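so my prof wants the structure for this chain in the tokens format not the other one, which i didnt know existed until like an hour ago. anyway here's the sequence
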Amino acid sequence: MTFEPSTMVSFGEMGCAFFSFSGTPSAGNPLTPAVVGSSSTFTPTISANDIQLPAGEFIMRFYGGITRTVDDRNLRYQWRHVGVGLIGEEGATNREITPNVYLISLDSADAYLELTSPGSIQIEMLQADAGITIDSNCHAIIWRVPL
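here's what i got, hopefully its the right format
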């Protein structure tokens, strides 16, 4: 996937935040994020299952680290701009190398978002088959360039 943000011209104030996630995956519901670390120029906050963002341009990448007990089980996920709808590209876990073996998912859900005022995002589960649990390698990175 290639992102071509419209106004990304100054990288001097670029910020980055790293998130982990918890919860039991179920279709139509978001996971619960936690901020693991962030740069001094970008410190997002969490409210329930929402990542609250200030105005700016954002590139987001979520990795669904899972453990599955049956080889045909899948987890599909995508970013949601709260109050607006799904954004970016869908990610899934059915692209893992070996079923029934603990591996970090090779796929990611990627999105680009431009906010002219503060907004909220979530990572929503589109499909969550039985026999799947998320693990400590379920995480996201969000990069920000202020407007």
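also thought this was worth mentioning. The chain has a mean pLDDT of 83.
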